[in-house]
Amino acid sequence: MAKCGPFEKEPVRYEEWFEENRFAYESELLAVRGELPQGAGVEIGAGSARFAGPLGIKIGLEPSARMRELARKRGVLMIDGVAESLPFLDGSLDFALMVTVICFLDDVDKAFKEACRVLKPGGRLIIGFIDRESPLGRVYLERKNGSVFYRDATFYSTEEVLSRLEKAGFRRFKVIQTIFHDPRGLKAAEPAKDGYGQGLFVVINAGK
Q: What is the largest distance, in Å, between two alpha-carbon atoms of the chain?
């Protein structure tokens, strides 16, 4: 069952995070934008379309009705669904995007296999997530029980995600990272760097 309860109950608090942590959000958005391919794609777990909207992604998949309602106001066509059972034909998409989604999934391996299924040969899966093994990721892990959104989340290391992607059939990985300082204190968006291990937010660009 999708872990969307907090997003149903606290849509205002969810939206406030992006305003209160503007430069962390912009850092994530810049990192994802730099990896996003052209073509037909979908954001899986699109939430309120804080990424799909500004990135020009026309279709989003999201199990939370409150989030879908907000996303539609940002001009994104929203579909009720979960990552583990995508309502798309085999080989029908050029790319799929997941941003801070894998920590809420019931079955990450199944979700990755589904993403691989719906992508065309040469298609790309772009994943943005909190790296559990980064310095700030360890802080998030220690404090997650006090967060209404992350309380039931499962954080992963970059190596774990790469291993699961490879098992699902993905190859040709590119990994970048951003947010190297406390998100609450940022005065400007932080540019992404290659690799992982230092930045809180990691983006993996994986090819089918």
A: 44
